[in-house]
């Protein structure tokens, strides 16, 4: 029997902390359900005390998901733990994840405290959480830079206080693989009650070693890994779920297995990338666009003779389908539904499917072939349907030697408004016209336009950041017309304004 490695997914907590990647509750539920299908053991659903949005998401994810344990993060603070326990009330399997910084730097500068005091606070937090739930995970923040002897004392104390899982985060991504592996080994050998808990890895990728560090942790006795889809996360990100899952699948001889249904890896990767507006780098291991593309003549020749010459993973094992259903203007609803499903989006509501299908036909009329990226962009844009402010129409005159002029129509809560303006280009003119309707002090902070595939008939994706009232809001638009996509992204930002 293989040794079981538990997969703790923190895409919706550590992953979601990335600026611009915030999801609303409906989107989080969509990701949580996909994570359940993928077979993760634990979903870290949020940090409930941090915001009402996070609190609500933990509640709704708890209701929506059955099998995985739902975990909520806290500091080693009683009111955080009370709040997490309340947010977890509907979870079928629940875990509180509490902890405190244990490195000298954290103890001195964050807490102005001492090692003994921190050890006592750590144990007290675990005891406090235990009155609410049986399953309590403790994290020793900055464990990567914590002295091993002190770390072992903390781990022993929190296990004695009832912790069931001990998280050893390399919070700053500083550790070398051997160093991190040796840290886990040290704990396995020096913590007298270590057999009463599971040791967990939680590695950040600042030096590009998150996966290597996690893997060394597992080889030295950790039996839970904390990971995110596509390796998203603060700064350079967290350990990639898909990399760890495929390392263990490819190296079966290690005798360590996860519950991950690897065929769901690519669909969930695309889903997370599209919902979070976070493109995956093309050469990213396992899920990058080029991960299975052989372009050099020698490789192509080898692969055609025997695929194993240059391929260690069968693309089908990670859910890369053969694209046998291609979407064109003649495709029906069922084909669209199938490709959405392949991309991790389930549309069971007929009216939603009708709506998407209408938009798909409009796009298919403009493009010969509609790609997966196009329909993901459509599905993303479709989630804006319920917004208060909608773009009714946009007309732009532009070109060389003429001043750009735009007129715009907005529907605001059912009422129609129109304005026009000139500008130094079509986007500038359109946004100036929009600002004449929405009379708010708002400033465009960031504006990126990206083509999805290639070709002049391609869909352009626009990401925007607009500052309003001291906050930055992120917006997204996708259209074959990049001026329209830009205005849609701006409108998306405005719809998110907190008044
Ligand atoms: O990186 C880290 O230390 C964390 C903890 C809060 C678990 O994310
Ligand atoms: Zn982290």
TrEMBL record:
Family annotation (CDD domains): DRE_TIM_IPMS
SMART domains: LeuA_dimer (SM00917)
Gene3D superfamilies membership: 1.10.238.260, 3.30.160.270, Aldolase class I
Residues at which Mn(2+) binds: 14, 202, 204, 238
Keywords: Acyltransferase, Amino-acid biosynthesis, Branched-chain amino acid biosynthesis, Cytoplasm, Leucine biosynthesis, Manganese, Metal-binding, Transferase
GO molecular function: 2-isopropylmalate synthase activity
Domain Pyruvate carboxyltransferase: 5-266
EC number: 2.3.3.13
Region (Regulatory domain) residue spans: 390-499
SUPFAM superfamilies: 2-isopropylmalate synthase LeuA, allosteric (dimerisation) domain, Aldolase
Record field: catalytic activity: 3-methyl-2-oxobutanoate + acetyl-CoA + H2O = (2S)-2-isopropylmalate + CoA + H(+)
Matches recorded under InterPro entries: 2-IPM_HCS-like, 2-isopropylmalate_synth_dimer, AIPM/Hcit_synth_CS, Aldolase_TIM, LeuA/HCS_post-cat, LeuA_allosteric_dom_sf, LeuA_bact_synth, PYR_CT
Cofactor: Mn(2+)
NCBIfam families: leuA_bact, PRK00915.1-3
Entry's family note: Belongs to the alpha-IPM synthase/homocitrate synthase family. LeuA type 1 subfamily.
Stored PANTHER family: 2-ISOPROPYLMALATE SYNTHASE 1, CHLOROPLASTIC-RELATED, HOMOCITRATE SYNTHASE-RELATED
Subunit structure: Homodimer.
Official protein name in the record: 2-isopropylmalate synthase
Lineage of origin: Bacteria, Pseudomonadati, Bacteroidota, Bacteroidia, Bacteroidales
């Amino acid at each position: 029997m293989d040794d079981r490695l538990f997969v703790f997914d923190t895409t919706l907590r550590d992953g979601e902390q990335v600026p611009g990647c915030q999801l609303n509750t409906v989107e989080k539920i969509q990701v949580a359900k996909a994570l359940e299908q993928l077979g993760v053991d634990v979903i870290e659903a949020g940090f409930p005390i941090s915001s009402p949005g996070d609190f609500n998401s933990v509640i709704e994810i708890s209701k929506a998901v059955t099998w995985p344990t739902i975990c909520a993060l806290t500091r080693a603070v009683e009111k955080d733990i009370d709040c997490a326990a309340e947010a977890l009330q509907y979870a079928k399997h629940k875990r509180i994840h509490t902890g405190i910084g244990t490195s000298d730097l954290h103890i001195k500068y964050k807490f102005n405290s001492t090692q003994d005091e921190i050890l006592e606070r750590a144990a007290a937090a675990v005891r406090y959480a235990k009155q609410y739930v049986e399953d309590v995970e403790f994290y020793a923040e900055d464990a990567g830079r914590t002295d091993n002897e002190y770390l072992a004392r903390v781990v022993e104390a929190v296990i004695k206080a009832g912790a069931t899982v001990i998280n050893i985060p390399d919070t700053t991504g500083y550790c070398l693989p051997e160093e991190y592996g040796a840290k886990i080994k040290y704990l396995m050998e020096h913590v007298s009650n270590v057999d009463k808990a599971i040791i967990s890895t939680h590695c950040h990728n600042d030096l590009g070693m998150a996966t290597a560090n996690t893997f060394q942790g597992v080889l030295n006795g950790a039996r839970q890994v904390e990971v995110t889809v596509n390796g998203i996360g603060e700064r350079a990100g967290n350990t990639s779920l898909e990399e760890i899952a495929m390392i263990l699948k490819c190296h079966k001889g290690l005798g360590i297995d996860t519950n991950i249904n690897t065929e769901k890896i690519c669909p969930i990767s695309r889903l997370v990338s599209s919902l979070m507006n976070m493109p995956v780098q093309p050469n990213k291991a396992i899920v990058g666009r080029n991960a299975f593309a052989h372009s050099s003549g020698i490789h192509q020749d080898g692969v055609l003779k025997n695929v194993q010459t240059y391929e260690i993973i069968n693309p089908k094992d990670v859910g890369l389908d053969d694209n046998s259903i291609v979407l064109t203007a003649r495709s029906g609803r069922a084909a669209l539904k199938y490709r959405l499903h392949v991309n991790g989006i389930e549309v069971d509501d007929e009216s939603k499917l009708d709506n998407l299908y209408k938009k798909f036909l409009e796009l298919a009329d403009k493009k010969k072939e509609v790609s997966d990226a196009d329909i993901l962009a459509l599905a993303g844009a479709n989630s804006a349907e319920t917004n208060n402010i909608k773009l009714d129409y946009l007309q732009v005159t532009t070109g060389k030697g003429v001043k750009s002029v735009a007129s715009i129509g907005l529907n605001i809560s059912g009422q129609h408004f129109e304005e026009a303006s000139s500008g130094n280009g079509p986007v500038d003119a359109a946004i100036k016209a929009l600002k004449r309707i929405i009379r708010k002090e708002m400033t465009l902070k960031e504006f990126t336009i990206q083509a999805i595939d290639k070709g002049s008939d391609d869909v352009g994706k626009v990401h925007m950041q607009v500052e309003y009232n001291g906050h930055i809001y992120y917006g997204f638009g996708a259209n074959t017309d990049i001026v329209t996509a830009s205005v849609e992204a701006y409108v998306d930002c405005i719809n998110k304004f907190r008044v």
